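queue> pop job 88
queue> type: inverse folding (structure -> sequence)
queue> payload:
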């Protein structure tokens, strides 16, 4: 039997093959279309169960199956699976695009709203309101020609953004260097050298292999003494997907053009206004105003930091030292930080063995939210290194999740959370199931996976997303978990990072992998003192992504502004501590913006927006104690469990007792 045809737990990852994909999705799409037609054709009094609940059920199997296919194509791709994924993606996109364009269904929903809408309360009332709003914003009131064009746009966007992501993955894997001379490794920490040796060995080569995957690339840019090699890797990284068969330079303008056309077809000035109307910012202008405010507050500190770094290089190498290039910034910044604080981040790595970090993260969550995690062996997985865990409250299983930590050549870069199944408080035997995926430093011979502190933050961040999904208690699937406004969705994830900095929580997991000793106090103090080193540069980097995103989606005109690569580079350079080379093409590998039909398009500002929320929210924990159970349970009840069942601003006020204030973030960053 085709394992994608029915919802199963445990999920049969060991049985899903490329040949299952098209037959299963074709069948499930037929079933779903029939179910939607039946909703529209029903006679007699309409009820919540026969309309909204039925619509939710009609799409569940398609969502489940396609979610598994997309996930597997992202974590264990191979040519046949990629081909199958690419074959069904347009069909699924067209299916979802046509739901709000279904005239009979639209009339059914409006009829139900008119007859029964005023009697609904709570989540059911919000579900109806959000559904009607979604249908209107996705073309329900368009004429036949408009609906046809909108569906065609959505299909083309799905095809183009899928191709964009695959090009980035392939371009990342296409570049590597194998070094055979020890002198080439000068400056690199032992952890990077060991990882490079293991990578070469895995390829059957002698020496040390370096790639554009995050653990390898970041180590090179931070520690490698050879500026020519740093430059090679920097240029290779910043020009990914810009040449040959993997060139995304024609895809990005077309995606922008289609998004603009879609927005105008639906009555919006631009794509930013279309996607933000349902988010906390509401308009592109408000999002840009938010970014401009933070930029203005950051510039004086940004300029001071960069003057200091240039002066530091001059002091280090003499008055004739050349100006800093883009591939020099990370290298000299690390040297300055070490000189300024006597702090080398590599000193922390032995205190962060992966298994210990994960156990400590679980202990942190137990103290805060009253739930426990336990490994459940024997569950089918897609790679031998993947583990499965259950989340429990007492003896009740609330959810389960897979953890896939390490990079592979058949796995896309970055870190993310996937949601496979959404449970419901009304169905006790249906629990939430998801996954957290990363590309962390892998173990090397004789040692566990020893992480950087930033990688520890990444684990906590993604687990915050996972908790948002798995602790949700919302009846309507579409309003459950992380299905919230995208400028609110990062709050549960970003707030988790704070526990990576507090002594009380660090002592739960930050212990030397050999001796079991906690981080020495002098090293902890240096880590804290160095936390805000070049904080303005870190902030300006995030703001640069937000600016280029909004300007591309609100202002860019190919006829007036020319190449999208050059246009983006000009914007990004305004936020860069060093000139960007002319061929800089980072925008062609920016999967956050162009890796899906919407994604973070016109929404990258959300990271900074949510950072304001997380800093302000965590200030309550600082006031009452970082493990204060009452505050933790309040966050769980008012944020994590509520999903999109209420307006995010109302949820935040219910937790914090007031609106968020910017001062907590600026204080945390030392930028006030």
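queue> result:
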């Amino acid at each position: 039997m085709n394992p994608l045809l029915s919802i199963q737990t445990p999920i049969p990852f060991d049985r899903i093959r490329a040949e299952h994909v098209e037959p299963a999705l074709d069948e499930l799409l037929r079933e779903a279309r029939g179910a939607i037609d039946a909703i529209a054709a029903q006679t007699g009094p309409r009820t919540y169960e026969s309309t909204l609940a039925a619509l939710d059920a009609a799409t569940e199997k398609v969502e489940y199956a396609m979610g598994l296919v997309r996930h597997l194509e992202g974590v264990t791709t191979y040519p046949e699976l990629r081909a199958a994924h690419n074959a069904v993606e347009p069909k699924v996109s067209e299916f979802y695009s046509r739901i709000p364009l279904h005239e009979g269904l639209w009339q059914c929903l409006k009829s139900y709203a008119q007859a029964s809408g005023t009697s609904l309360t709570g989540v059911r009332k919000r579900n109806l309101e959000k559904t009607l709003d979604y249908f209107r914003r996705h073309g329900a009131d368009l004429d036949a020609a408009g609906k046809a064009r909108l569906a065609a746009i959505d299909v083309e966007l799905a095809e183009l953004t899928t191709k964009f992501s695959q090009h980035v993955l392939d371009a990342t894997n296409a570049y590597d260097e194998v070094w055979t001379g020890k002198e080439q490794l000068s400056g690199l920490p032992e952890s990077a050298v060991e990882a490079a040796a293991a990578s070469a060995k895995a390829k059957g080569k002698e020496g040390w292999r370096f790639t554009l995957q995050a653990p390898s690339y970041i180590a090179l840019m931070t520690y490698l003494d050879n500026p020519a090699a740093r430059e090679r890797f920097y240029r290779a990284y910043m020009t990914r997907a810009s040449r040959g068969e993997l060139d995304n330079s024609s895809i990005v303008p077309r995606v922008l053009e289609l998004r603009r056309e879609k927005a105008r077809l639906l009555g919006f000035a631009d794509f930013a206004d279309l996607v933000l109307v349902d988010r906390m910012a509401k308009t592109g202008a408000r999002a840009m105003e938010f970014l401009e405010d933070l930029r203005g507050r950051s510039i004086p500190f940004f300029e001071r930091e960069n003057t200091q770094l240039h002066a530091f290089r001059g002091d280090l190498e003499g008055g004739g030292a050349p100006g800093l290039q883009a591939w020099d910034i990370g290298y000299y910044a690390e040297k300055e930080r070490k000189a300024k604080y006597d702090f080398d981040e590599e000193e922390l790595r032995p205190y962060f063995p992966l298994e210990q970090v994960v156990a400590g993260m679980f202990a942190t969550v137990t103290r805060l939210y009253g739930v426990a995690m336990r490994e459940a062996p024997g569950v089918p997985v897609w790679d031998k290194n993947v583990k499965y865990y259950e989340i429990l409250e007492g003896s009740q299983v609330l959810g389960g999740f897979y953890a896939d930590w390490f990079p592979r050549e058949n796995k896309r870069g970055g870190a993310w959370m996937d949601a496979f199944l959404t449970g419901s408080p009304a169905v006790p035997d249906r629990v939430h199931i998801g996954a957290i995926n990363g590309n962390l430093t892998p173990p090397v011979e004789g040692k566990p996976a020893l992480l950087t502190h930033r990688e520890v933050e990444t684990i906590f961040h993604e687990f915050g997303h996972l908790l948002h999904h798995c602790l949700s208690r919302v009846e309507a699937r579409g309003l459950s978990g992380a299905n919230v406004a995208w400028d609110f969705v990062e709050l549960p994830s970003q707030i988790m990072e704070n526990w990576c900095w507090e002594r009380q929580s660090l002592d739960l997991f930050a212990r030397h992998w050999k001796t079991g000793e906690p981080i020495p106090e002098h090293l902890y103090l240096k880590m804290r003192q160095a936390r805000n080193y070049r904080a303005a540069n870190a902030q300006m980097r995030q703001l640069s992504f937000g600016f280029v995103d909004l300007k591309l989606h609100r202002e860019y005109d190919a006829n007036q502004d020319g190449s999208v690569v050059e246009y983006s580079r000009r914007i990004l350079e305004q936020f860069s501590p060093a000139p960007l080379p002319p061929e800089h093409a980072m925008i062609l590998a920016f999967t956050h913006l162009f890796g899906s039909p919407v994604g973070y398009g016109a929404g990258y500002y959300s990271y900074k927006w949510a950072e304001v929320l997380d800093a302000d929210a965590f200030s309550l924990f600082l006031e009452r104690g970082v493990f204060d159970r009452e505050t933790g349970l309040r966050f769980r009840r008012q944020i994590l469990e509520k999903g999109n069942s209420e307006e995010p601003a109302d949820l935040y006020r219910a937790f914090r007792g007031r609106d968020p204030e910017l001062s907590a973030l600026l204080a945390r960053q030392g930028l006030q």
